[in-house]
Amino acid sequence: MTPVLRARGLGRRYGRRWALRDCTLDIPGGHVVGLVGPNGAGKTTLLKLAGGQLAPTEGSITVLGGHPAGGAAQQARIGFVAQDTPVYAGLSVADHLRLGAGLNPGWDAALARERVERLGLDPAHRAGRLSGGQRAQLALTLGLAKRPELLILDEPVAALDPLARREFLQGLMEAVAEHEFSVVLSSHLVSDLERTCDYLIVLVDSRVRLAGQVDDLLATHHRLTGPRRDPDRLPAGQHVVSASHTDRQSTFVVRTEDPIHDPAWTVSRLTLEDLVLAYMEGPAPAQGRPVLEVRR
Ligand SMILES: Nc1ncnc2c1ncn2[C@@H]1O[C@H](COP(=O)(O)OP(=O)(O)OP(=O)(O)O)[C@@H](O)[C@H]1O
């Protein structure tokens, strides 16, 4: 199956500063993918390159098998909701829908109308006077009514209160269930990703630290707590992601496909947040070593 997004040695530089460098990844289709990583990791830059708003300085990127900025036909296949959920403050909700219909050949007017009604948005209301949550919902409506094969959302809910966030994400999930498109969603709110995403990518310093289906990642990672032990003394099949020690005790986050039999350890499961933090805090993989990828 062609990945929805493929990057090879992808880089983007501003002046002498690299915003993204040597990024290589494949995002499989048919998933709601959570993209997470520390501030400045390059997530927005990667998503803008995928949306065709930026051109690479080096390397390559293909989206749905084509060039992201490859003309109107390719652009019609990709929906993009940017970080600040941009809408035109002076235009009304109805103007936005008219604009969307004029610009997008596959525009689903019924979907747009139905969503605006359901959200209780007044079509005559100027976008500049909508609340943050309503603006985000309008931006999502424009992205969905395009009926894209891939919808990219860059921190769309960061500024919303918990209720507005839940409603936004519910709307997204309903649309995914109904229309079956792929989604890449970047967020710092791992609890939101936990509720919505079935595939996770952790990006640190432009590099993929971890990628895989959420269920598989959670099933193959464990926290081991027990008497102090050197990580080198763990079995070969237990890959240490992070380690911390007190004088008497060691705590490891390990990835393994095998059962853990050692009675010295108390073994506990990780939440998605634990997993993300372990990879964000852990050391960078050695040069040339493949990034950890867990697939079913
Ligand atoms: N237009 C720009 N000009 C100069 N540097 C930039 C520009 N855009 C991004 N950068 C730099 O590139 C790096 C990556 O930025 P990017 O916004 O892609 O990171 P991010 O992972 O999305 O971060 P955040 O989680 O804070 O949104 C940062 O160091 C940022 O300062």
From TrEMBL:
ABC transporter domain span: 5-230
PROSITE patterns: ABC_TRANSPORTER_2
CDD domains in alphabetical order: ABC_DR_subfamily_A (cd03230)
Domain of life of the source: Bacteria
Segments crossing the lipid bilayer: none
Keyword list, A-Z: ATP-binding, Nucleotide-binding, Transport
InterPro entries, alphabetized: AAA+_ATPase (IPR003593), ABC_transporter-like_ATP-bd (IPR003439), ABC_Transporter_VariousFunc (IPR051782), P-loop_NTPase (IPR027417)
Gene3D superfamilies given in the database record: P-loop containing nucleotide triphosphate hydrolases (3.40.50.300)
Example of a GO MF term: ATP binding
Name of the protein this chain belongs to: ABC transporter ATP-binding protein
Source organism of the structure: Microbispora triticiradicis
